[in-house]
Amino acid sequence: MQLNPYKKDYDNNLFLKKYILKGWVPDHPPISQDTQITAFGSCFARNISKHLAKRKFNMTSASSPEIYISYMGEGMVNVHAIAQQFEWALEDKKIPDGLWHGWKAEDYGVSEDVRLKTKEAFLKTDFFIITLGLSEVWEDTVTGEIFWRAVPLKNYDETRHKFRVLTMEETKLKLEKIYSLIRLHIPKAQVLFTLSPVPLAATFRDISCITANSVSKSILRASLDEFLREKAIDNRINLFYFPSFEIISELFYEKFLDDGRHPKPEIIELIMIMFEGSFCNSKIDWHQVEQSFKELRKKNLMDILAEN
């Protein structure tokens, strides 16, 4: 039985390990300096890629910067978009034109050269870090495929483009698809899932964005938990979850910058160190990590009081 912490428990010298990381981290860190790491999806993947690259770990984003998952990976935040990359690269799934767009609505063609380079990068990967972001998607009803992001206004066709919220069932099925493709084609690889704490910037539903975001994250988190429970035999061996979402949503009083979406840099840095200390063969002083957390949490509260 695992207990929810009392207020006094936040002073525990092993609070993070006991109340946050319990049951999720491996007994022995699986990542060494030689491990080939591929990270994409929402913000955690980008942040961990930068952090580990600074520590001289072997990142696909550095060795293969020209592939979509390297320079547009943060834009692939729904399970369909992430699964598309594996199906396309590893099994040559035909992707219709017009689904993949950049930050400025520029169209990324379905390049065979990029596909082959993505396949090569996947096949070399020892450790995947995949971050899920949202459950709201745009679908091309003619092809049945899902866009990376919202449909660019210049391409929008109300007769064929449909906004919808993914169900838990299809979310879990896509998680299973992603994992099964990795197990089939790269059986030596280990896989870690995370959930982005960054809220929706907007919703196309006729409800408040705050409540729409709660639903979006809940679908992902619950689907992911169900998927992990069904794959219990692989958990903490080939399959992992890292609770970055819970660290930000549960442990800090004021989490985000003034935009109300992006976590404060000092919190991100703590999460990166927690990940490295849990999954990498690094010389991380865990007692110092715990102390840094306590100091940061106190400072976070003091900052709020100073603002008021």
Which helices and strands occur, and which strands form pairs?
Blueprint: H1 15-19, E1 36-41, H2 43-54, E2 58-59, H3 60-63, H4 68-71, H5 79-91, H6 112-124, E3 127-132, E4 136-140, E5 145-146, E6 161-165, H7 168-185, E7 190-195, H8 209-230, E8 239-241, H9 244-251, H10 265-279, H11 286-307
Parallel strand pairs: 1-2, 1-3, 3-7, 7-8
Antiparallel strand pairs: 4-5, 4-6
Can you put this structure into words, describing what you see?
This protein has 308 residues and is an alpha/beta fold. The chain folds into 2 domains: 1-27 and 254-308, no CATH class; 31-242, Rossmann fold (3-Layer(aba) Sandwich), CATH 3.40.50. 44% of the residues lie in helices and 11% in strands. It has 11 helices and 8 strands. The chain has helices spanning 15-19, 43-54, 60-63, 68-71, 79-91, 112-124, 168-185, 209-230, 244-251, 265-279, 286-307; strands at 36-41, 58-59, 127-132, 136-140, 145-146, 161-165, 190-195, 239-241. A 5-stranded parallel sheet has the order 2-1-3-7-8, with helices on both faces. A 3-stranded antiparallel sheet has the order 5-4-6, with no helix packed on it. Strand 4 (136-140) and strand 5 form a beta hairpin. Helix 5 crosses helix 6 and helix 5 (79-91) packs parallel to helix 7. The longest helix has 22 residues, at 209-230. 36% of the residues are buried. The model has no long low-confidence stretch (mean pLDDT 95).
